[in-house]
């Protein structure tokens, strides 16, 4: 278990370049299984989850070549599908959430796909019903081995397009079904589809491979199946969750930071949601400039004067992956905020650590926490903590960087799952962090 030692209380200053988006990269990497032709992907982040998925692809027989930092070519022209039935896959496939998205492409191209119960954050129940209900609608047979928690689908006669209304706008579920439908016979309509930029990017990539998809960016996708798909070059967008993390970090440490090349048009409600906490988010070309909040930041209230409420919703709503960061940043705001995490059941329990550090938080129930901001009148105190999940981990890191004294964070593998070389990148703008293996 790796550890960070963090000396808090220092202002940071400088530019930071966001990495490529983790959740997009995981979808895009699975899509390379849809064609025997070569696919080139640029801006792939060098993070644990993505590297684990690349290893799974290699073990499946995909030819992977690193062209330069973040750029790889992939060719799935000679796959070893027996790997999917072996012990190694049971271990590797369960090591991350994103591995679930190999099922759709394999089912579409080879008529069968398997997956052990995927990993990812332990942040509450994480159902896979939407994925498999979608495959069944397309004509697949479904099997689930309860003992081994192993899922399987097959479609010996191929998949056939149909209409489906998803029971929830699942991000990875939509990606999986889209990747199955692009090679199905006839037309598939997916209503209540998720439409995060990750999915828009996946659909654009599939179109450049020869797929026929209408409605990209909406919750109604119409896909007309094609016989085969070809190669393409795809560029992964900057990671909007990392961008949000750096906005929060800058505000809470009163630092002046410029986040470079953020792809503003793909950030949705993110800049405005930080503004609701009183944070100044300046657009400078395609960069975000956060000035030093020397006099703090004041939470806005609603028109009727009621308490500010920040909650998550499927895109274009506010992403659940930034709520933990909002919560930690609110601990130093002037004013009070209700954070309502609607999607996940166990993502707010890390507030115990913040309360230990001196934050004023009432955990109302597993989904809601009220934060009474300190307005920097009292600094958080350093402590020792363990990172329970990726976004709680980064939030605790932000808290530690703003706190008085030296904090210790254990289980930083959770942070490394989604933040590339985070200690070195933050050191470059003045953070005092030491990694202890
Ligand atoms: C690898 C990857 O891409 N992971 C992301 C993906 O996970 P993932 O695709 O696993 O998450 P889903 O979109 O399937 O669902 C997330 C949670 O939200 C609930 N839910 C979802 C949709 C809905 O309309 N109502 C609802 O309540 C689900 O029951 C589930 O508990 O999307 C999540 C939701 O943005 C993000 O937190 C994860 O970072
Ligand atoms: C919940 C997340 O990731 P995963 O779905 O991979 O667990 C996240 O990125 O915040």
TrEMBL record:
Phosphoenolpyruvate binds at residues 22-23. It holds the Pfam family EPSP_synthase. The active site is at residue 121. It is found in: Cytoplasm. SUPFAM superfamilies: EPT/RTPC-like. Keywords: Cell cycle, Cell division, Cell shape, Cell wall biogenesis/degradation, Cytoplasm, Peptidoglycan synthesis, Transferase. The keyword Cytoplasm applies. It comes from the Bacteria. It catalyses: phosphoenolpyruvate + UDP-N-acetyl-alpha-D-glucosamine = UDP-N-acetyl-3-O-(1-carboxyvinyl)-alpha-D-glucosamine + phosphate. The keyword Thylakoid does not apply. GO terms for biological process: cell division; cell wall organization; peptidoglycan biosynthetic process; regulation of cell shape; UDP-N-acetylgalactosamine biosynthetic process. Its EC number is 2.5.1.7. GO terms for molecular function: UDP-N-acetylglucosamine 1-carboxyvinyltransferase activity. NCBIfam families: murA, PRK09369.1. Belongs to the EPSP synthase family. MurA subfamily. This is UDP-N-acetylglucosamine 1-carboxyvinyltransferase. It comes from Croceibacter atlanticus (strain ATCC BAA-628 / JCM 21780 / CIP 108009 / IAM 15332 / KCTC 12090 / HTCC2559). The lineage of its organism: Bacteria, Pseudomonadati, Bacteroidota, Flavobacteriia, Flavobacteriales. The gene is murA.
